[in-house]
């Protein structure tokens, strides 16, 4: 099921919600594999425990800030070397035999391209869905 339930954008945050037609266990299991981590962070990005650094091949990087299995992953996100630190929060919620995914990207600089970030996170949620199939 490819349903975007909600998208909010303001000058300091972007939020995208997507319902995946897979149970929470399947989606979480996919995120814990290299393909799922790459779907979330970008190719080369690896999810780690709280406090661990990650870096994707596209130059984005950050630190895992919070890791609650089957509920939430929060990480800092820098668009490139020297870019300001922002926070990305992925929440997972069971929705019957489906899973609701919500990404909130917060603490964005005033000049952030929120439309581009919203597009990026919609694509991320679609890739997570594909990885969990």
From TrEMBL:
Stored Pfam families: AHSA1
Top-level taxon in the UniProt lineage: Bacteria
Activator of Hsp90 ATPase homologue 1/2-like C-terminal domain sequence ranges: 49-131
InterPro entries cross-referenced by the UniProt entry: ASHA1/2-like_C (IPR013538), START-like_dom_sf (IPR023393)
CDD domains in UniProt: SRPBCC_CalC_Aha1-like (cd07814)
Family in the record: Belongs to the AHA1 family.
Name this polypeptide is given: Activator of Hsp90 ATPase homologue 1/2-like C-terminal domain-containing protein
Source organism of the structure: Tessaracoccus flavus
């Amino acid at each position: 099921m490819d349903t975007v339930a909600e998208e909010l954008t303001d000058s300091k945050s972007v939020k995208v919600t997507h319902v995946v037609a897979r149970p929470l266990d399947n989606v979480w299991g996919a995120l814990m594999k290299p393909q799922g981590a790459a779907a979330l962070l970008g190719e080369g990005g690896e999810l780690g425990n709280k406090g661990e650094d990650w870096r994707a091949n596209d130059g984005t990087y950050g630190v895992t800030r919070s890791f609650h299995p089957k509920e939430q992953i929060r990480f800092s996100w820098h668009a490139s070397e020297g870019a300001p630190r922002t926070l990305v929060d992925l929440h997972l919620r069971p929705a019957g035999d489906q899973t609701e995914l919500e990404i909130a990207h917060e603490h964005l600089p005033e000049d952030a391209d929120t439309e581009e970030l919203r597009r990026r996170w919609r694509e991320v949620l679609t890739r997570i869905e594909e990885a969990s199939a």
